[in-house]
Amino acid sequence: MLKKFTKSVFAASVLGLALGSAAQAAEPLVVYSAIGYDIAMGKAFEKATGIPVKMVDMSTGPLLARVQAEKQNPQWDIAWIDGAAGMRNMAAQGMLAPYAPKVDWNALGRDIQPADHAYVGSAASLACVIVVNKQRVPKADWPHNWGDLTNPKYRGMIGMNNPAVSGPTYPCVAGRMVALGSEKAGKAWFLGLKANGLKTFATNGVTLRALDNGVIKVAIVQNSAGIGRMLKGLPYEVIYPNPVTLLPRTIGISAHTSPQVRAEAEKFIDFLLSKEGQAVAQKGDPTGDSLFYPVVAGVAALPGIPPLSGVTVQTANPAVWGPREGSIDRWFTNHIVH
Question: Which domains does the chain have, with CATH numbers?
Fold first, then answer.
């Protein structure tokens, strides 16, 4: 009788474990991400913790639009993007659960963490720089300042991303407005670029392919994208005009998750910022998003990334520019893209 009872308990335990495993597998941690090394990070996290991850990869503009469309019924647990404005806008709508990971931040890391811990700054790059195709523009004619780009000698030669689609580009646009003193002045500058034949594309990759093919000769893109093309051996020069706008890479947890899922999401962020996670981040997209400025003490930037001390950097306050993102993106689409 005891043997039969033991076997029954054992069988029930096995069945319970199987059902538990199936339930866990059916409900992975859902990450909406626009980061180039996200798939690699998801696989590494799952291997390290056993927590399954569903990585939904898309550009930042569509990601933020999807989050808004799902506002009444969120289907995501983590959002991971380039830029703090979109994340701050989500926080203002009560969409994020605050989290303050216990991390030994470096100075940059401390600077980009929001005071309310609504989201986490996990890395940084520069929202936009000037990238020149050296085979198509003689060195004597390279632009060096933002103001140079409205010079008629660059007519029809310049391209950039659409901020409604590309994550780094809205902070770039906002940064020009900050540097010029107002939204109105920034819009006037972009209208000047359009009058000078500015071409617009969806994302860094499309803009840089246009630069490869001679459709444009000068690009306004994220610094990591330009550096990545240089590392591939393409004849590019990355120019850092005064000023460049810092682009925090941010990650946030949905406020609508269960306590269990929230704990798993916190583990994902902890893993991302761990020594192992940072190694994955720097290997997962070696000619793209891996070319970031680390925010964790003891982690050095990859070769080819100039120190921030060597460029003039400004920030676009996400509390100011986050609420304006939708209206400025619409203005850009209506007046610059079309």
Answer: 2-125+247-306 (3.40.190.10), 129-245+322-337 (3.40.190.10)
